[in-house]
Design goal:
Chain lengths: 231, 143
C-alpha cells in the first residue's frame, strides 16, 4: 500500500515532465536496422555513428544486365529471396510483392529486387521467363537477379551471405519443399543502402505495414533530395 | 418433470457430439486446402499470374477429372494448359494424405469458386488411386 502511494506522484511527475519536454512531433521516421558503430573523432568532437548498410554486391538480372549497389543509389528498393521452382512459400511471397509492385510500378523512386537462392537452376532465361510470367516486362523496375550468371562455384554461398545481410534466413534443406528452407522477409532499403524495415510477407498485417511505411521512406528521400532535411 | 429435462439434456448432448463429428469432416477439405494448396494456388484458388494455374473456374479440373487424385498424390512435373494458358511449374505431390482426406480435398476444390464437379466417394478416389501411373523416379531398377 505504501509503495503504491509513492508510485502515484512518481507517475504524475513522469507524465508531466515527458509531456512538457517532449519535442514537437516530427514526421514519423523509420528506424535503421542492424548494428551501429560509434566512432570517436580524432578532434574530440561528438562521435560519429556509422549505421549498417547492405554489403557490396554484384548481380546479373533477367535482362543480362549487371546490377550493383550503385544501380539502387538514390532510390528505395524492396528486396527478397526466392527461387523459381519453389513450391513452398515463394508464390505467396511473390504474389504479395506483386501487389506492392503493382501500386508503385510507375514510381521511379522505388524499384524491386528478387534474388534467386538457387543459382544453379535459375539461369538468366529461367529468371526472364519467371519475370514475364509474373507480368514484369521492364527488368529495371523489378530485377530478378542471380549471383551465378557465369556458373560461379561460390554463387550459392554468395547469395546466402547476402540473404543474411538482408535479415533473411536461407539455407539448403533436403527436408524443405524444393530443397531450400527460407523465410519470406521483405527488406525495405533506403537511398543510401540502409535497411529501414523488415516485413514477413506471409503475414497480412506485416504486408499492410509495408504499405504504410513505404510512403514514409519515400517522403524522407524526397525531403533529402530537395535539401529540406539534413539527415 | 425431471425425466423430461433429462431427455432434453441427452438429446442436446447427442446433437453436440454429432454436430462436432460432421462439422470436422465437412470442413476437412477446406482445412487441407488452406494447409497444403493455398500458398501457391491462392486463398480463393486464383493462382498467381502466369506462374501458378488457377483452380477457380479451371477447365483443367473438368478435362482431367479422372487424373486429379493421382496428380495430388504424385505431383505434376509436365507442362499443362489451363484455360488456354500454358504453365510449367512443378507441383509437389502429397503422399501423406489418406484416401478420405484426398476425397474431401477434391470435393472442396470441385465445389468452390465456380467449379461444379459431381461429389466423389472415397471408393471413387481409391479406384482412381489404384490405377495411378507409377512415377518414373520412384521406380527402382534393380535387375
Amino acid at each position: 500500500m505504501f509503495k503504491r502511494l509513492l508510485l502515484l506522484p512518481t507517475l504524475a511527475a513522469t507524465l508531466l515532465t515527458t509531456a512538457c519536454t517532449e519535442p514537437p512531433k516530427e514526421a514519423a521516421k523509420l528506424p535503421i536496422m542492424g548494428e551501429r558503430d560509434v566512432r570517436p573523432r580524432a578532434d574530440g568532437g561528438p562521435a560519429d555513428t556509422v549505421f549498417a548498410t547492405v554489403p557490396r554486391f554484384r548481380l546479373v538480372n533477367q535482362a543480362g544486365q549487371v546490377i550493383t549497389n550503385q544501380t539502387f543509389a538514390g532510390r528505395a528498393y524492396v528486396a527478397d529471396f526466392f527461387f523459381a521452382t519453389c513450391p513452398g512459400i515463394c508464390p505467396k511471397m511473390q504474389g504479395e510483392l506483386l501487389k506492392v509492385y503493382t501500386k508503385y510500378a510507375k514510381d521511379p523512386r522505388i524499384v524491386f529486387l528478387s534474388h534467386t537462392i538457387d543459382p544453379a537452376h535459375d539461369t538468366i532465361p529461367v529468371l526472364k521467363d519467371y519475370a514475364q510470367r509474373l507480368g514484369v516486362t521492364d527488368a529495371a523496375r523489378w530485377h530478378f537477379a542471380t549471383t551465378g550468371a557465369h556458373n560461379e562455384p561460390t554463387a550459392k554461398d554468395t547469395v546466402f551471405q547476402l540473404a543474411k545481410a538482408y535479415f533473411t534466413a536461407a539455407l539448403p534443406d533436403k527436408e524443405a519443399p524444393g530443397g531450400f528452407a527460407h523465410n519470406g522477409t521483405f527488406a525495405l532499403v533506403d537511398d543510401r543502402g540502409h535497411i529501414r524495415g523488415l516485413y514477413d510477407s506471409l503475414n497480412a498485417q506485416e504486408v499492410a505495414r509495408l504499405f504504410v511505411e513505404l510512403p514514409i521512406l519515400l517522403a524522407e528521400i524526397d525531403a533529402r533530395k530537395s535539401g529540406v532535411a539534413t539527415k | 418433470m425431471p425425466s423430461r429435462s433429462l431427455i432434453l439434456g441427452l438429446v442436446a448432448l447427442l446433437g453436440t457430439i454429432l454436430a462436432s463429428c460432421f462439422s470436422n469432416n465437412r470442413h476437412q477439405g477446406e482445412k487441407l486446402y488452406a494447409l497444403h494448396c493455398s500458398s501457391c494456388h491462392g486463398e480463393q484458388g486464383q493462382g498467381l499470374a502466369r506462374l501458378i494455374p488457377p483452380i477457380a473456374g479451371s477447365d483443367y479440373l473438368v478435362k482431367h477429372r479422372a487424373e486429379l487424385a493421382c496428380l495430388l498424390r504424385n505431383g505434376q512435373n509436365e507442362a499443362i494448359v489451363v484455360n488456354g494458358i500454358g504453365y510449367h511449374n512443378i507441383m509437389p505431390g502429397n503422399k501423406t494424405m489418406s484416401t478420405a482426406q484426398l476425397t474431401n480435398l477434391l470435393n472442396y476444390i470441385e465445389s468452390h469458386w465456380g467449379n461444379k464437379g459431381v461429389p466423389r466417394t472415397i471408393l471413387d478416389v481409391q479406384t482412381a488411386l489404384d490405377s495411378c501411373r507409377v512415377p518414373q523416379a520412384a521406380e527402382p531398377h534393380h535387375h
